Structure formats: structure tokens, C-alpha cells
Recover the amino acids of this structure.
């Protein structure tokens, strides 16, 4: 009898130690497969990430090489000895301290201007009512898509005619009059703040500006941080408007200063890389501290502005 | 007498809110008139003149546009270059961003760090990074040709080669896929898990899941990313200025680089304004297309569900 019975039917129908064994094997196989999948993912993701970071490492490596080592083939990743003096030598070739001051002045000034003007406008669009509001809001959204190349030439004509060219004014004044992308980002955030908070404050006799200042702004720190970081990075990297307006080299920002430096010291790749490293490092540090806000900003608006 | 003040305050409450609304948006409104709306109108008027930045200027009607579209041989070279760059960086950039987004959507330890590393290059745009790419693509001692030599490939002269300068710029553009990756990742995370479960019950394998769940559900986001990238790639400037200066010959002379040269090097302000308007129309058409198709896609999804 035992010889004719098909073992498969018994195992599926009734409990047997054998099926317990099968289940355990199945579970183990699943776990092995999961670990294998994970391993496979790392095998793609980690080399990919290294590939994305390689340009930075290459730039840093070149910044520490001697002039005769730089064209060595095959290249040496870790120069010996490390020429840290490239940094001091490169910085001595031009008044980079002055350029840094100019850049910080424009960048921080514009950041502040954007924060003030954009939070105000965003609150108006998020909460207050007035005739023509919808039309104005659409107008504002429409200008997000407008390429700045359209307004660049007439702005240049305007600023030149009032004697602002070759000064920081054309780079900085517009920042105090709103930036549509930031207004949109902040407005989206303000809309999520419960109205009850404002109504309670209004019953207590708070003015509209009081509500904006004491309730909305303190609750909007993440959105404000997002705008601050985006404004900082955007202005720090800005090249086009300083290039057009700033002729006097004493007014140059880092971006155009290193572009000029590139023209003068084209073959000193080690010096050029040293200066470039110094310009990129602040952005990298800010990114690592505030990346959460940057990514949130992109997810909210679907753009990096 | 007793009714009148009440009525007055009722009126003033609404009026007060309206006044507040306009006060809050005032900075933006002034900025819009002075730095955006006004310049847009002015730019269009300029595009109808032969303005060269000197006082004398004449109305030439649509001559600038007619000349650009029919007589200027440079214009169509520029258009071809711009579209080549745009289409190639959109296709490759979107596919790469999608691949990285899928990779980053896996639940494996350390994924947040990897995500940060893939995103990092996108915040470091600007001149310093363009200079770094010049060094990366250096034909003799650059990293790219060194890596190629490991596979026994003799790398091309990249930015000094008519054939390879454009592919070089396209490769550089792929480094900045970070924001697209984040948008696609948010899209992937928005796909309901039930759809995958249902597909699995129907016997779908990984490829089926990707082809019949992920792609259709993600298609509006994919399309959005593609259009945004296209609009952005029409405005590539710094990399061209630093890496190729539009050359060799006219091999990488792209739209806004040509516009910049006409406006601020050759002082053909009227002509460049006409170019800016053509750019504006192209971008408006792309934006319109994006809204139209994304609306259709959403309906398509609802029917499919």
C-alpha cells in the first residue's frame, strides 16, 4: 500500500514534517533571493554614485598636482607630494577676497530681498481677497515660464539709461520686487496652514500684518528655508547678469572672476581647479545641511526654479 | 445714526482686506510692471527696429523676423544645433533619470545617502563646474579619455572636434538629472501599491509590472519632465561659453549663445530681441503642449482604471 500511494497528494492534503521542511526551504529561498536582489541593486547603485562623484574627485585631485604632473599619462589620482600651496598661489594671482566679498554682498542681499518681497506677495495670494486677484495670480504664474532672455535686453537698456550699468544695482534691485517661482512655492505652503489659527488671532485683535508676522512666518520655517537655500545657490552661481553689467573688475563676483582667470591662466589647470574647488565647496556644504528643504521644494513645485 | 457706522465698518472691513491684499502684493506688482511686463512690451517694440544700441534707430516692421527665418543662414544652423542638443539631452536625460529614480525607489539600507550623492551634482552648476568639465574632457590628460583608454579606445578631441563637441555637451547635461530624478521618484511613490498587487495576482513578472503599471501611471510625470528638460536645454549658455564658445566653427552655436552674441557682442539689440521672441514662442508652444497632453493622459488613466 505504501508503495502505490503518491507522496505528493499526501503532502498537500495533510500535515507532515515534509511540508514543514518545504515551507522552510521556500522561506529561505525567498530570503536568499531578497539578499541577492539587494546585492544586485548595490552593484548598480554604488558604482553609479561613484561615477557621478568622479568629476569632483578629478577636480580636487588636479588642484593638488604640480604643474608638470598634471599632464602625466596615465594620470595619478593621489599626487605626491600634495601641493596644497596651489591654493595659496592661485589665490594670490587675483584679489579673490574682494570677489568673495562682492559675491556675498550680492548673494545675501538678493536672498533677503527675495525673502521679504516673496513672503509678502505669497501671503496676499494665499489668503487675502481683492478685485482682480485671480487675474494677477495667473499673470504671476505665466511669468514663471517666461524665459529671462526676453526681458534681459530691455532691462539692460533700462538700467543703462538710468546710469546703473557697471554697478550692483541691476543685479540686486529686481530681487526686492518678487520672484514668481518663490512666490508660488511659498503660496503653496501658506495654503496648507489652518485658517483657524489666523481667525483666532484676528478675534484677539491682531492686524493682517501682525498675523502674517507672528503666525504665518513662524509656521513657515521649512518653506522659508527652501527659498533661502534656492536663492543663495542661484545667486552664488549666477553668471549672466554680472557678465553683462559689471565691467569694473573691482566689482566682479566670483563667477565672472574665475571666467576671467580662465582666460589668463588657461594652461595652469591646477590653479584653475583649486579656485573652482573653493567656489564649489560652499554650495556643497549648504546642500548637505539643507538638502531636505531643497528636495521638498522640488517635490512641491515640480521644478528647481 | 446708529445704523450708519455699522454699515461703514462692514464696507471698510472688505475694503480693508482689499487694501491689505494690494499692499502685500505691491512689491511684486511694481516689479512686474517695471522689470517684467514693461520690458516684455518694450522687447517686442525693439524687435521691430534695427536698434544697435546707439541713439539712431528705425522701424523696420517685421524685417528682423523675416531676415532671421528666411535669409540668415546662421539661424537655421543654430536651430538645428539647439534641437539636436535638446532632443538628445531630453531622451537620454529622461531615461537616465528614470533608471536612477527606479533604483532610488528600492527599500535598501543607505538609499538616502545614495539619493543625496546622485543629486549633489545638480546644485553645483555654473562657471566653476564648466571649467571642471573642460578639464575632464581634455583630449590629452582628461579623465574621460583616460577611462576610454582603459578599454583600448582612443578618445576624440571632444570640444575641439566638430563631430564630438556636441556629444560632449550632451554628456555634460546628463550630470544634472537630479531634479528630474526627484520628480520621477515622487511620481513612482505616488503609484498605488494595489495596482502592483493586482498585476502580480494576474501573473505579471517584473517587466510586465514596469511596462503595464509603472510606465502608464508615470507617463504624465515622464512627459512633464521631458518638456521641462527641453525648455531648460533651450537656454544652455554657460557650458557653451566656457567649453566651446559656440565652436568649432558653428558646431555648438546654440540659440541663447547666438542671442547673447548678437545683443551684447555685436550690439544688434533689435535683431536679438526678435530672437528672444522666437525663443519665447517656442517655449510657449512647448508649455501649451505639456498642459494639453498631460490633461489627456490623466483622462486616459481614469478610463483605464
Amino acid at each position: 500500500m505504501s508503495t502505490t500511494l503518491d507522496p505528493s497528494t499526501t503532502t498537500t492534503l495533510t500535515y507532515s514534517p515534509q511540508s514543514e521542511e518545504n515551507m522552510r526551504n521556500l522561506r529561505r529561498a525567498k530570503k536568499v533571493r531578497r539578499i541577492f536582489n539587494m546585492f544586485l541593486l548595490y552593484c548598480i547603485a554604488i558604482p553609479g554614485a561613484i561615477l557621478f562623484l568622479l568629476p569632483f574627485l578629478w577636480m580636487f585631485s588636479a588642484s593638488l598636482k604640480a604643474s608638470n604632473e598634471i599632464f602625466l599619462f596615465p594620470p595619478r589620482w593621489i599626487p605626491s607630494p600634495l601641493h596644497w600651496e596651489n591654493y595659496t598661489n592661485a589665490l594670490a594671482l587675483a584679489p579673490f577676497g574682494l570677489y568673495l566679498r562682492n559675491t556675498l554682498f550680492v548673494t545675501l542681499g538678493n536672498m533677503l530681498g527675495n525673502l521679504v518681497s516673496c513672503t509678502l506677495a505669497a501671503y496676499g495670494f494665499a489668503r487675502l481677497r481683492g478685485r482682480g486677484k485671480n487675474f494677477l495670480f495667473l499673470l504671476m504664474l505665466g511669468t514663471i515660464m517666461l524665459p529671462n532672455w526676453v526681458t534681459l535686453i530691455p532691462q539692460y537698456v533700462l538700467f543703462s539709461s538710468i546710469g546703473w550699468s557697471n554697478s550692483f544695482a541691476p543685479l540686486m534691485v529686481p530681487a526686492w520686487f518678487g520672484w514668481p517661482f518663490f512666490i508660488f512655492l511659498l503660496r503653496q505652503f501658506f495654503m496648507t496652514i489652518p485658517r483657524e489659527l489666523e481667525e483666532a488671532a484676528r478675534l484677539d485683535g491682531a492686524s493682517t500684518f501682525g498675523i502674517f508676522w507672528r503666525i504665518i512666518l513662524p509656521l513657515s520655517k521649512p518653506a522659508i528655508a527652501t527659498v533661502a537655500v534656492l536663492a543663495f545657490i542661484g545667486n552664488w552661481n549666477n553668471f549672466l547678469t554680472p557678465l553683462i553689467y559689471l565691467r569694473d573688475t573691482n566689482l566682479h563676483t566670483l563667477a565672472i572672476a574665475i571666467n576671467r582667470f580662465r582666460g589668463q591662466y588657461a594652461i595652469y589647470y591646477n590653479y584653475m581647479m583649486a579656485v573652482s574647488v573653493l567656489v564649489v565647496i560652499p554650495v556643497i556644504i549648504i546642500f548637505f545641511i539643507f538638502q531636505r528643504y531643497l528636495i521638498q521644494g522640488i517635490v512641491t513645485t515640480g521644478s528647481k526654479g | 445714526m446708529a445704523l450708519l457706522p455699522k454699515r461703514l465698518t462692514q464696507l471698510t472691513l472688505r475694503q480693508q482686506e482689499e487694501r491689505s491684499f494690494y499692499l502685500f502684493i505691491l512689491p511684486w506688482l511694481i516689479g512686474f510692471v517695471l522689470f517684467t511686463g514693461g520690458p516684455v512690451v518694450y522687447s517686442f517694440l525693439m524687435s521691430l527696429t534695427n536698434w544697435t544700441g546707439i541713439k539712431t534707430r528705425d522701424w523696420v516692421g517685421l524685417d528682423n523676423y523675416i531676415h532671421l527665418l528666411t535669409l540668415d543662414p546662421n539661424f537655421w544652423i543654430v536651430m538645428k544645433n539647439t534641437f539636436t542638443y535638446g532632443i538628445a539631452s531630453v531622451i537620454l536625460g529622461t531615461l537616465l533619470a528614470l533608471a536612477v529614480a527606479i533604483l532610488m525607489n528600492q527599500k535598501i539600507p543607505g538609499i538616502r545617502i545614495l539619493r543625496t550623492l546622485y543629486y549633489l551634482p545638480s546644485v553645483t552648476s555654473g562657471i566653476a563646474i564648466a571649467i571642471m568639465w573642460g578639464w575632464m574632457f581634455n583630449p590629452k590628460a582628461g579623465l574621460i579619455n583616460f577611462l576610454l583608454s582603459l578599454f583600448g579606445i582612443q578618445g576624440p578631441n571632444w570640444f575641439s572636434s566638430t563631430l564630438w563637441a556636441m556629444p560632449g555637451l550632451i554628456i555634460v547635461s546628463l550630470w544634472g538629472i537630479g531634479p528630474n530624478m526627484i520628480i520621477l521618484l515622487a511620481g513612482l511613490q505616488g503609484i498605488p501599491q494595489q495596482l502592483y498587487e493586482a498585476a502580480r495576482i494576474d501573473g505579471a513578472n517584473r517587466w510586465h509590472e514596469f511596462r503595464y503599471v509603472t510606465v502608464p501611471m508615470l507617463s504624465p510625470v515622464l512627459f512633464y519632465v521631458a518638456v521641462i528638460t527641453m525648455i531648460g536645454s533651450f537656454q544652455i549658455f554657460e557650458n557653451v561659453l566656457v567649453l566651446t564658445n559656440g565652436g568649432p566653427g558653428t558646431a555648438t552655436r546654440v540659440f541663447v549663445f547666438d542671442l547673447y552674441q548678437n545683443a551684447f557682442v555685436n550690439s544688434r539689440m533689435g535683431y536679438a530681441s526678435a530672437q528672444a521672441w522666437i525663443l519665447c514662442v517656442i517655449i510657449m508652444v512647448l508649455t501649451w503642449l505639456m498642459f494639453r497632453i498631460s490633461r489627456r493622459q490623466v483622462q486616459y488613466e481614469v478610463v483605464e482604471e
Confidence is low (pLDDT under 50) at residues 1-12 of chain A. Chain A touches chain B through 93 residues (CB under 8 Å). Residues 7-63 of chain A form one domain. DSSP finds 14 helices and no strands in chain A.
